[in-house]
C-alpha cells in the first residue's frame, strides 16, 4: 500500500530502529452468520462470469473457460489503519487521519448497498479485500460510530463485519480476493512488525489462519482467491528469501499455505503469490533492491492444483527497482519508477514481473498487479507521467490489475478512487476535474482478450532442494512411498518430462496427450532393474530404474544426491514406442525449443521431446562419479505424436 514519500518507508531500517506493536489476540470467532449478513446488503448485479476461477497459461478464466480479467481495486481498512505511534484511539494517529476500526472503510458514512452501486460505476469486477491476523481473532465489537450508516452492523466484531462485506460483494457480482495484509492491525508497510508472514507468529499459525479463512468463505460463491501475504520485506535484522529453506523462506512458506488451503479448506480458490518487495538496507553502497518476481525465473511454484497459481506484484511511482520510496533517511540515489522513461519503465516491468506471462515455461502464470495508484492532488509532472505510462503499459499488455485504494474519506485520502464526506456524499475519479480519469478510463476500456481461452500445455517444476515436492494428490493419498528419502511427484494430470543431473530438479508436463494416467490408484515404486527386459540395456554400465510395460514416470526420490527410486503409474491407453537414451551427465540434452524453460539453472538437464514420455532413469554408483540422474529413457507414442502436432 502507498505511504506518502515524506513518510520514512524503510528509513528505520537504515537508522537501525525496531518498531514493535503490542497486540493481544484471542480464540477465533464462531462460524459466520452469512444468512443474517445478507440482510445488510441487498444490492445485486447479474454477473457475466461464473465462478470458480482457474488459469490457462497467462490468463485467468472462469468456470466456462472464458477469459476473466481481474479489473479491480483494494477496499482497505480491515488490515488496520493505526500508524504505530501515539494513541490508537486518536484518529490523527491513523493513516491519513482515517480510523478504520479494523473494518473496510466507509461503512460509517454510506450504506453498503450504495457503496456497491458506486463500485459498479467504476467498472471494476474484482475487489481485493485486505485483513489482518489480529482481526480474525478479535472478539471485541466495533463502536457503533464505525458503522453509523449501516446500523444493522451494530454490536458486530470486525470479523463479523468482514463476513457481511464478503457476502455483499459476492451477491453483487464482484469477484472477491481475500488478502492477508498484516499480522497486527496497523498500517503497512515499513519496519512495523508486519514485514513477513511469520513476524510475531509462527508459519504454522499463519497457515492455520489461512485454512480458517478459506473454510469460512468456502460456501460464498464469488470468493475466488487467496492472496497469501502483502509486500514481504526486510526487518531490521534479516531479509526474506526465495528458496533457502529457512524460517525466512517466502517460496517455501507460500507453497505450504497454498497446498493447505487447496487440500484442507477450499480447492476452488486461486492462490495469489506476491513477489518479494524489498531486501537489503537502503543506503548507497550497500546491497538493496526490490526482487519482485525475478526469483521465479529459476524457482517457480508448483501447487497441488497447477491451474490455480497467480503471481502478483506492486508498482508505485515513488518507489523503484532499487529505491525504497523513502525521502531523507533511507533515501538513496537510485532511480524511482517515475524517473524512468517510458521505455525504461516498460523494460523494468517486463524484467521484474511480466516475464512470467511468457508461454511454455515452468513459471508461466497470470500476473496480477494487485496494487498501484496515485493521488488526485498529485502535481509532480514526473509522477503524473508515470501514471499515464504505467496504465498505458497495463492496457497494452492486457494486464490484470487492482488500484489502491478504493474508498477513502473526503479531505483525508486523495489517493482513493471514491471519497465520502461525513454525510455520505461521494467525490472522486468519477467526477469532472480528477486528472486521473483519462488514464483510468483508457485502462478500463482498452481492448483485451475475451471469450474462450484454449487450453495450453502445462509445464511445472519439481524441486527437492530442502524436502519433498509431492504435488500429486493421488500420490499423497498412498502415503510415504520411500520413507527417509526426498520425494518428488508431478501434479495430477502431468507426467515427468525432464531431470537434472545435480540439484534434484524435475520438469512435468501434460503436452501432447494431456493426462496419460489410468483412472485407478495403482502405482509402482521401482528400486531395482527387474523391469529392464532381456536385451534391453539402454544405458550400459549404469543402474537403470525402468517402469513396467505400459507405465510411465511421474516421480522420483533421492537420498542425498543419489537416486533412490522411480515412481511409475499405468497409462489409460497403450504406450507402445521405441525408446531412446537421453544422456545429460556431461551437458544439457533438451529439445531445441527448450519447452518448459530452464528448470534447473546451473545444472545439466535432460528432457524428453513433446511426443515422448519418460519410462526410466539411469544413474551410476561408481566411486568418484556423481550419483544423480545421468540419463532418461524416452519413448515415443502414437498417442502423444498425434496430439503434439
From TrEMBL:
The protein's enzyme class: hydrolase
EC number: 3.2.1.4
Domain Glycoside hydrolase family intervals: 111-405
The organism's place on the tree of life at top rank: Bacteria
Entry keyword set: Glycosidase, Hydrolase, Signal
Keyword Hydrolase appears in the UniProt entry: yes
Region of interest called Disordered, as start-end residue ranges on this chain: 79-103
Signal peptide: 1-29
Gene Ontology terms, MF aspect: cellulase activity
The keyword tRNA-binding is annotated on this UniProt entry: no
InterPro entries: GH (IPR017853), Glyco_hydro_5 (IPR001547), Glyco_hydro_5_CS (IPR018087)
Similarity comment: family membership: Belongs to the glycosyl hydrolase 5 (cellulase A) family.
UniProt xrefs under PANTHER family: CELLULASE FAMILY PROTEIN (AFU_ORTHOLOGUE AFUA_5G14560) (PTHR31263:SF0)
Name of this chain's protein: Endoglucanase E1
Amino acid at each position: 500500500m502507498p505511504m506518502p514519500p515524506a513518510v520514512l518507508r524503510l528509513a528505520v531500517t537504515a537508522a537501525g530502529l525496531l518498531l514493535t506493536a503490542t497486540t493481544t489476540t484471542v480464540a477465533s470467532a464462531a462460524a459466520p452468520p452469512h444468512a443474517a449478513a445478507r440482510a445488510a446488503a441487498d444490492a445485486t448485479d447479474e454477473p457475466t462470469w461464473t465462478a470458480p476461477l482457474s488459469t490457462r497459461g497467462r490468463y485467468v478464466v472462469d468456470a466456462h473457460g472464458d477469459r476473466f480479467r481481474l479489473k479491480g481495486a483494494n477496499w482497505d481498512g480491515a488490515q488496520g489503519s493505526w500508524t504505530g505511534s501515539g494513541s490508537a484511539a486518536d484518529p490523527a494517529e491513523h493513516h491519513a487521519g482515517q480510523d478504520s476500526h479494523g473494518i473496510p472503510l466507509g461503512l460509517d458514512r454510506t450504506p453498503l448497498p450504495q457503496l456497491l452501486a458506486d463500485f459498479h460505476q467504476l467498472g471494476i469486477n474484482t475487489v481485493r479485500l485486505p485483513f489482518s491476523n489480529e482481526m480474525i481473532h478479535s472478539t471485541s465489537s466495533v463502536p457503533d460510530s464505525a458503522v453509523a450508516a449501516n446500523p444493522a452492523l451494530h454490536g458486530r466484531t470486525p470479523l463479523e463485519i468482514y463476513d457481511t462485506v464478503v457476502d455483499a460483494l459476492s451477491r453483487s457480482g464482484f469477484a472477491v480476493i481475500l488478502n492477508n495484509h498484516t499480522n497486527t492491525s496497523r498500517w503497512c508497510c515499513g519496519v512495523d512488525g508486519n514485514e513477513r508472514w511469520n513476524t510475531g507468529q509462527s508459519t504454522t499459525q499463519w497457515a492455520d489462519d489461512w485454512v480458517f479463512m478459506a473454510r469460512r468463505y468456502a460456501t460464498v460463491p464469488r470468493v475466488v482467491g487467496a492472496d497469501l501475504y502483502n509486500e514481504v520485506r526486510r526487518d531490521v535484522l534479516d531479509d526474506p528469501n526465495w528458496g533457502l529453506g529457512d524460517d525466512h523462506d517466502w517460496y517455501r512458506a507460500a507453497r505450504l499455505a497454498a497446498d493447505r488451503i487447496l487440500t484442507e479448506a477450499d480447492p476452488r480458490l486461486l492462490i495469489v503469490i506476491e513477489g518479494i518487495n524489498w531486501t537489503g538496507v537502503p543506503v548507497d553502497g550497500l546491497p538493496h533492491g526490490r526482487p519482485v518476481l525475478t526469483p521465479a525465473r529459476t524457482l517457480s511454484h508448483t501447487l497441488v492444483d497447477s491451474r490455480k497459481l497467480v503471481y502478483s506484484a506492486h508498482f508505485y511511482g515513488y518507489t523503484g527497482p532499487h529505491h525504497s520510496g523513502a525521502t531523507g533517511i533511507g533515501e538513496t540515489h537510485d532511480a524511482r519508477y517515475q524517473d524512468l522513461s517510458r521505455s525504461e519503465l516498460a523494460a523494468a516491468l517486463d524484467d521484474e514481473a511480466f516475464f512470467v506471462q511468457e508461454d511454455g515455461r515452468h513459471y508461466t502464470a497470470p500476473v496480477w498487479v494487485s496494487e498501484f495508484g496515485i493521488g488526485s492532488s498529485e502535481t509532480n509532472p514526473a509522477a503524473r507521467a508515470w501514471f499515464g505510462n504505467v496504465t498505458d503499459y497495463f492496457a497494452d499488455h492486457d494486464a490484470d490489475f487492482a488500484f489502491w485504494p478504493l474508498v477513502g474519506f473526503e479531505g483525508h485520502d486523495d489517493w482513493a478512487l471514491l471519497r465520502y464526506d461525513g454525510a455520505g456524499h461521494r467525490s472522486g475519479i468519477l467526477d469532472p476535474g480528477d486528472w486521473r480519469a483519462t488514464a483510468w478510463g483508457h485502462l478500463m476500456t482498452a481492448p483485451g482478450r475475451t471469450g474462450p481461452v484454449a487450453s495450453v500445455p502445462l509445464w511445472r517444476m519439481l524441486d527437492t532442494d530442502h524436502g519433498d515436492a509431492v504435488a500429486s494428490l493421488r500420490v499423497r493419498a498412498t502415503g510415504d512411498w520411500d520413507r527417509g528419502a526426498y520425494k518428488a511427484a508431478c501434479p495430477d494430470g502431468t507426467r515427468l518430462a525432464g531431470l537434472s543431473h545435480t540439484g534434484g530438479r524435475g520438469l512435468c508436463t501434460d503436452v501432447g496427450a494431456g493426462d496419460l494416467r489410468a483412472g485407478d490408484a495403482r502405482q509402482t515404486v521401482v528400486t531395482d532393474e527387474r523391469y529392464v527386459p532381456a536385451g534391453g540395456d539402454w544405458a550400459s554400465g549404469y543402474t537403470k530404474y525402468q517402469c513396467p510395460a505400459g507405465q510411465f514416470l511421474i516421480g522420483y526420490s533421492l537420498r542425498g544426491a543419489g537416486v533412490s527410486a522411480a515412481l511409475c503409474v499405468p497409462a489409460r491407453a497403450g504406450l507402445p514406442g521405441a525408446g531412446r537414451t537421453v544422456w545429460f551427465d556431461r551437458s544439457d540434452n533438451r529439445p531445441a525449443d527448450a519447452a518448459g524453460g530452464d528448470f534447473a539453472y546451473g545444472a545439466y538437464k535432460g528432457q524428453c521431446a513433446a511426443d515422448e514420455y519418460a519410462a526410466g532413469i539411469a544413474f551410476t554408483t561408481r566411486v568418484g562419479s556423481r550419483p544423480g540422474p545421468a540419463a532418461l529413457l524416452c519413448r515415443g507414442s502414437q498417442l502423444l505424436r498425434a496430439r503434439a502436432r
